[in-house]
C-alpha cells in the first residue's frame, strides 16, 4: 500500500468513527492538542511573535502555572490596534479573562452551544487544571460538515428546548 493510499484509508477510518455516532463525539475527539501558553509577564509583542512563529490564532496566559486568560488574534486587532497600546504592554492588560474553558468529556454539541452563548471562537480544554487542547470555530465547522441529518435534528431539538426553558413562563 502506498503512502497516499494509507493516508486516505486512515482519513476514511476517522470519518467512519466520527459519523458512526456523532452524539458521542467529545471535545477530546476534535480538539487540537498543541497549545501555546505564555507567562503573564510577557509583552503583547512577544506573544504576537510566538503566535506567528507557531502559526496559531491564540495563546493561553498562565500565572503560577494556572491558566488565567486567553489572547486571540482578534484581541490584537480590537484591543491593541484600536486602543493604540504600545508593543510593550503586558499581555495581562489585553487578555480575555476569566478564562472560559471546558473539559475533555463534554459533547461537541455542548461545546458548540457554550461557544455560541459566550460569543467565543476559541475554547481551551482543561484536564486536572492543565490546558490539554483547544477547540476553534473551524473545528466545529469541520465536525458539522460530516454530521448526519439525525445529528442536525438533535442539535435543532436541543436548541428549541433551550430557548423554551429560557423563555417559558412555566419555569
What does this structure look like?
The chain has 171 residues and is of the alpha+beta class. It is 50% helix and 17% strand. The chain has eight helices and five strands. It has helices spanning 3-20, 27-30, 44-54, 73-81, 91-94, 108-118, 137-145, 149-167; strands spanning 37-39, 58-63, 66-72, 122-127, 130-136. The strands form two sheets. It has a three-stranded mixed beta sheet. The longest helix is centred in the C-terminal third of the chain and has 19 residues, at 149-167. The chain is globular, with a radius of gyration of 19 Å. It starts with a helix and ends with a helix. The model has no long low-confidence stretch (mean pLDDT 84).
Beta-strand residue percentage: 15-25%
| Bulk shape | globular
Q: Helix-strand pattern, N to C? A: HHEHEEHHHEEHH
How many H/I helical runs? 8
Strand order of the largest sheet: 1-2-3
Helix share of residues?
A: 40-55%
The description of the largest β-sheet is: 3 strands, mixed
On the 0 to 100 scale, the average pLDDT is: 84
Briefly note the structural class of the backbone: alpha+beta
Record field, number of beta strands: 5
The CA-CA distance between the termini, in Å, is: 60 Å
Amino acid at each position: 500500500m502506498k503512502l497516499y493510499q494509507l493516508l486516505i484509508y486512515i482519513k476514511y477510518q476517522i470519518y467512519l468513527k466520527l459519523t458512526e455516532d456523532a452524539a458521542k463525539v467529545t471535545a477530546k475527539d476534535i480538539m487540537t492538542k498543541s497549545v501555546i501558553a505564555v507567562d503573564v509577564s510577557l509583552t503583547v509583542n512577544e506573544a504576537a511573535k510566538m503566535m506567528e512563529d507557531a502559526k496559531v490564532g491564540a495563546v493561553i496566559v498562565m500565572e503560577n502555572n494556572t491558566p488565567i486568560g486567553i489572547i486571540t488574534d482578534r484581541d490584537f486587532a480590537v484591543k491593541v490596534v484600536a486602543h493604540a497600546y504600545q508593543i510593550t504592554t503586558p499581555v495581562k492588560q489585553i487578555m480575555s479573562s476569566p478564562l472560559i474553558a471546558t473539559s475533555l468529556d463534554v459533547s461537541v454539541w455542548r461545546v458548540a452551544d457554550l461557544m455560541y452563548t459566550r460569543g467565543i471562537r476559541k475554547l481551551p480544554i482543561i484536564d486536572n487544571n492543565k490546558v490539554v487542547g483547544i477547540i476553534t470555530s473551524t473545528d466545529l465547522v469541520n465536525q458539522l460538515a460530516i454530521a448526519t441529518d439525525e445529528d442536525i435534528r438533535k442539535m435543532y431539538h436541543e436548541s428549541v428546548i433551550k430557548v423554551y426553558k429560557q423563555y417559558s413562563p412555566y419555569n
